[in-house]
Amino acid sequence: MIFVVSFLVVLMLVGAVSASIFRDLISAVIAAALVSLIASILFYFLQAPDVAMAEAAIGAALTAAIFIIAIRRTSRYEE
Amino acid sequence: MRRAVAILLLIIVALGISLSLAEIPFGSPETKVGKHYIDEGIKETGAVNIVTSVVVNYRGFDTLGEVTVLFIAAIGLGAVLTTSVKGETRKIQPASLVLYTGCRLLFPLILIFGSFIFLHGHLTPGGGFQGGAIIASGFLLIYLGCRERRISRAASNLAESLGGLVFVIIGLLGLVFGGYFLLNFLPKGTANTLFSAGIIPIIYIAIGFKVGSELASIIDNLIEES
Fold it and tell me: Looking at the whole model, is its pTM more than 0.95?
């Protein structure tokens, strides 16, 4: 159990750091959605399934979609 | 030089946060109110899910505020985005076969799952906000997969207004019957059954419709503009 959680936390940190250094903004949004998804799994492990559901639906799906729609209106690559 | 100062400031902030957090006794029940919710919650509200009994019953007024914040955000987004000129319909590139078929097969299931989540909010984890968000993600799938389809603005506005009205009217009925806003005036029933917990399922159905239609209309506004 502790190994699974540690692996997820490390993956979450990798996602967070790569979201801030990616030049391609679509990739950055996907990395940020990965952070949200792992956060929701961790919420489930911490026995908060209510929060996990809201995080998975809003953080991982809807926020990423709104960011991608915004990127489609602007430019894809960061200068 | 600037970088060194920034690192120094970060260390000071980290020290401050960790020192102040170390003072908080996490895990030990210092407050009496949490213990009261866990021990007496099922008896007092009839809802098996303690989180729901806190969100809708004990702290129902805060939930009304939360729903209002989301409502104002959706209204504000609509007001900002619909000021630009509409008119020309761009030709829509059709989605791939996989996405189209997946959308047609999955959309009803997602809708049923979201409704299940908010109908059973007082029995299982989840509730109006979670169910509404799941329903809105189903509508997002419709926009990605079946691109010629659009949700009806009038229907989404109707669901949104009805949800808000039901919430406030139930609260005012509590004021009429028992003397305070959002009083649980309906019979509690037996715990662990679908028709229990008084007004909690009604309010969660209202919140589910409201949140679902608001988030779907936000996505609708954004996609129409892009």
Answer: no
